[in-house]
Amino acid sequence: MGTIFSLQDLARVYIIIERTEPDLREVANMNSLMKISKTTQRRFVLGRQGLWPGRRWSGLEGTAQALNAIEALQLDPLNVAARSQDIALWGRVLDYRPEFLDQVIYGQRRFFDYGGGLFVYPIAELPYWRLHMQRRGETPYRVEFAKTHAAAIEQVYAAIQEHGPLGNRDFAGNYRVNSYRGRKDTGVALFHLWLLGELMITRRQGFQRIYDLRERVAPPELNYAAPVEEAEQFFAIKSFAFMGFMRERPWISSLGGDIQRKISPAEGKAWLACLVEQGSVTPLLLEGSKETWYTLSSELPLLETLEAGQVPGAWQPTGPTTLDEVTILAPLDIVSARGRAGFLFDFDYVWEVYKPVEQRRWGYYTVPILYGDRLIGRLDPKLDRKTGVLFINGFWLEDYGPVNDPDFGLAVSKGLERFAEFLGAKVFDFSSVQSAELRSWLEKIF
Length: 446
Description:
single chain, alpha+beta, Arc Repressor Mutant, subunit A, 5-stranded mixed beta sheet, 18 helices, 4-stranded mixed beta sheet, 4 domains, globular, 19 strands
């Protein structure tokens, strides 16, 4: 966790900043900052997330190791080829199977899923998330919701307390509501109690949440709320651990969301200066950006190894590398989602599943393809589970995709074959690929 600093510490650093320049780039002395190449940036983010140079975890235990290393895994219910979370873990864990995720979350209780943007977190973090949950319940919207839905909230809590785990379908509801989170008053009441941490998800049926009381789900030694300053300091560090590199403003915004309170630019600047002063965080210069970026100081040995053109010893793969076979990335993978693909890979990527058909440039479920440390293309897969046919509705390579290199063709075929095996597909159908040249190339390498 590092040193816990108080509001007095923040005030002292803020005074120092105000007396000089309100720009941390001056405080850090730009000329002395470590400069990180584009190649190192890509490899650091990919490697930190377990995607490069290849899968280094395997099986059920490897699934837990991957989840701990990547800090947070976003969940999504759509299952066109596979769910995003399963594609993400398949790309990191050799011989991954979707049931592994359920086992480590709900069977072994080593993780929990939570949040409006639904993520999986290590269960050891639960005491820190209790601050987020408490403050979530203190927001004006939640306070008003608790008043207007008091009867439904009391009803569902009492039912679970008496009968044990229940889901939305176990309640008939008292009246319909118009909410993204449910159509019954009891459904949104369950969601409300879950956001506040009074309930937790004890298991899932398909993707349906089954709730129980927190004290019956959380391990007893973790069923407490961490002190406020300790929790806030935890999230200040976690943001860097999750993203790898961050700039000042996005870090302040991310931290504010995690701790559920407004952080002014002045407070955020002072807080970041405190982290630098105590040695937890180090400022950097990234090739391709004029801004100052920050990373955890503990990551510096990794960055130095990568800058020297070497692979960190702990990152050695247990199977093929991403040069031996391509990896299909999940649509919500943190290495390429949220606009990161553009800066890190010079790759234009937006998941188009929620776009109207006429606004889609590529396709409904289009996902990136990783080759080596580059995103070299994208494909739009759809699995017909009745026939076992994996339809490739679109396949696009970037201009730098080395289609004339037989090693590249072999890497594509092996990667897609592994993907098909994971999905349980028996045959590919490339007939919808619009480019005759690419369609011919795909048919040839297969």
